[in-house]
Amino acid sequence: xxxxxxxxxxxxxxxxxxxxxxxxxxxxxxxxxxxxxxxxxxxxxxxxxxxxxxxxxxxxxxxxxxxxxxxxxxxxxxxxxxxxxxxxxxxxxxxxxxxxxxxxxxxxxxxxxxxxxxxxxxxxxxxxxxxxx
Length: 133
Known about the structure:
This protein is mainly alpha-helical. Helix content is 59%, strand content 0%.
């Protein structure tokens, strides 16, 4: 059983770590309590730490690229710069369609997804009359 749980979200930047989340939490707590002096102090600490983490992340990323093939290097540079997607659409399609099954068309795939998303709505009945606003 962990002593402390820290959530890392999918949308977090890649340099965000559990150690970086702690000052953010303290900063937000100070903001919520209206302690502006402490909030500003923690905001400055958080911003300095964010810049350090980001710099270290990209420095190690580039250092690792120096030992790779040029094509891999350029692919990584494009992902860092936001010029290329981190994952391609082919990867997502491979999750939707197991091996050995023929791939349906894009229209059929979209219809299957729509059907799956609309299934829970069949359990609800429409309101007889709308309440006044």
